[in-house]
UniProtKB/TrEMBL annotation:
Protein EC: 3.1.3.2
Domain Calcineurin-like phosphoesterase: 141-331
Source organism per UniProt: Lotus japonicus
Organism ancestry: Eukaryota, Viridiplantae, Streptophyta, Embryophyta, Tracheophyta
Protein name per the record: Purple acid phosphatase
Keyword Ligase: no
């Protein structure tokens, strides 16, 4: 009898050894606050991050404890310690209930050479940073992960992204998970500085950055003050949606938490932005926002439906190649789809809210798997999008639950320009753009 039991147990364990063993949940990091800035100086720059700011320009953002005297200039050049250029910027600060932010500096530098390392120093204080500008032509690489937070998982996601030699990081919403605890924006800024000060981080908003409090606090106060994106440079009136271009790719960052109906300012801006896209110059068209439209996870099921109803026809007519969203803490990749069905001229949809925040994973998927859904897995990780040339891009997703970066999903994507879809639909797009 006992022997039989042992035999059965051995058999069971032999059949499950091939299965993926999920490690224990990881804890929220405890980054000391106030930040230790290694210096007595109140104007010591911390939380340095950079973002693209129009053609050949970069915005440098940093925070100082001193609110009055610390200057907002950046010295920079292509040799370490030798700065032959200087740019003057602006600063802001905000109060949130009892919290009072440091001085938040935003300084745009440029024009900069493409694919070049620059050395820079903020406000004449602190140590020297270096950044690399994106290339002017293919190939280029984007790193992608949403819903980052600041846990042990976030740390390994950042570690893997750091090792992948990317040009620009795309974050489809939800950064610090501060959720009104304002000092957590500071600790997040410190956590991401080693990466975000060296490559442009392009972000859009998520629900965890809104932080509105009934009539007490407006929404997105902290997010907009700290993570200023090139909305003015792209003709938008709101930091919640904007666009930019990198080496043959036009990227549109939409706002899931700004009005998006066909009468909204966002929709009007989107039409204007699409009318300016030249697919000869930028054959690739990417769109990012927070709440996914194609999602077969039980988490946030249907939450993107309204935005999808309003905006999907326009994006389809424009021949968008790839749509990237976050919000759901898992990974999912669709086949080309439109209006809920397979469509060779629709975008590939990717949900990648798996950066590693404290809320953990969204484990439960709807069964059977919808026809449009090609790959789905509830694990943390990051994506890499390598735009190889005007017709081919290579997408890969790297699971990181167990510290190792494991490439778990990959696919070659051919552009909709090269498959003729963009040409085919150009009439449809033109008439949609003309509609008042
Ligand atoms: C683009 O890259 C793909 C994959 O490496 C290759 O097969 C194709 O020939 C390239 N196309 C052009 C126009 O260079
Ligand atoms: Fe979210």
């Amino acid at each position: 009898m006992e022997l039989k039991l042992v035999l059965i147990l051995t058999l069971i364990s032999a059949t499950v050894t091939a299965e993926y063993i999920r490690p224990q949940p990881r804890k929220t990091l405890h980054i000391p606050w106030p930040l230790d800035s290694n210096s007595k100086s109140q104007s010591y720059p911390h939380q340095v991050h950079i973002s693209l700011a129009g053609d050949k320009h970069m915005r440098i953002t940093w925070i100082t404890d001193d609110k009055h005297n610390s200057p907002s200039f950046v010295q920079y050049g292509i040799l370490p310690g030798k700065y032959d250029s200087i740019a003057e910027g602006e600063s802001t600060s905000y109060n949130y209930l009892l919290y009072s932010s440091g001085k938040i500096h935003h300084t745009v530098i440029g024009p900069l050479e493409d694919n070049t390392v620059y050395f820079y120093r903020c406000g004449g204080q602190g140590h020297e940073f270096q950044l690399k500008t994106p290339p002017a032509q293919f190939p280029s690489t984007f790193a992608v992960a949403g819903d980052l937070g600041q846990t042990g998982w976030t740390e390994s996601t950042l570690d893997h992204i750091d090792r992948c030699k990317y040009d620009v990081y795309l974050l489809p919403g939800d950064l610090s998970y501060a959720d009104c605890m304002q000092h957590l924006w500071d600790t997040f800024g410190k956590l991401v500085e080693p990466l975000a000060s060296t490559r442009p981080w392009m972000v859009t908003e998520g629900n965890h950055v809104e932080e509105s409090m009934l009539s007490l606090m407006d929404g997105f106060v902290s997010y907009n003050s700290r993570w200023k994106m090139p909305f003015e440079e792209s003709g938008s009136t709101s930091n919640l949606y904007y666009s930019f271009e990198v080496a043959g790719v036009h990227v549109i960052m939409l706002g899931s938490y700004a009005d998006y109906d066909v009468y909204s300012e966002q929709y009007r801006w989107l039409k204007e932005d699409l009318s300016k896209v030249d697919r000869k110059k930028t054959p690739w068209l990417l769109v990012l926002f927070h709440v996914p439209w194609y999602n077969s996870n039980k988490a946030h099921q249907g939450a993107g439906d309204d935005m999808m109803a309003a905006m999907e026809p326009l994006l389809y007519a424009a021949g968008v190649d790839l749509v990237i969203a976050g919000h759901v803490h898992a990974y999912e990749r669709s086949k080309r789809a439109y209006n809920g069905r397979l469509d060779p001229c629709g975008p590939v949809h990717i949900t990648i809210g798996d950066g590693g925040n404290r809320e953990g994973l969204a484990h439960r998927f709807i069964n059977p798997q919808p026809k449009w859904s090609e790959f789905r897995e509830a694990s943390f990780g990051h994506g890499e999008l390598r735009i190889v040339n005007s017709t081919h891009a290579f997408w890969s997703w790297h699971r990181n639950d167990d510290d190792q970066s494991v490439q778990a999903d990959d696919i070659w994507i051919t552009s909709l320009v090269s498959s003729g879809c963009v040409n085919q639909k150009s009439h449809e797009l033109r008439s949609m753009l003309m509609k008042p």
